[in-house]
Design goal:
Blueprint: E1 2-5, E2 8-11, H1 19-35, H2 39-54, H3 74-77, H4 90-112
Antiparallel strand pairs: 1-2
Amino acid sequence: MTRMVKGFIRTAVTYEDTPEWQSLWKAARMMALKDGWSMSKLVREALTEYIKRHDPGNPQLALVHWTEDAPMPETLRTKKSGYTYFPKQPSELFEEAVARLNERAKRLDAEKK
């Protein structure tokens, strides 16, 4: 849950109630206290470092890089917010996909002969 409180975003963090997670959070609180930081600052610094190390994120989402001739699914083309990943309309993508499938079928038939 995220909400604004006097210019700050307040977010709840949920984790499993296991001894491993409890010791992780206890160690994080101890490090924050030792450095004179709040848990908020510790989390901000950890997120900043994580983003620097892992930007731009998971490259597997960009499927078009290794499947250029396959149409992208609707879920990857648009978001609910209306932002469009790909400018083509579904009908255009469908027509292109059918044409590519027909070309592949012709190539396979030619290879069989």
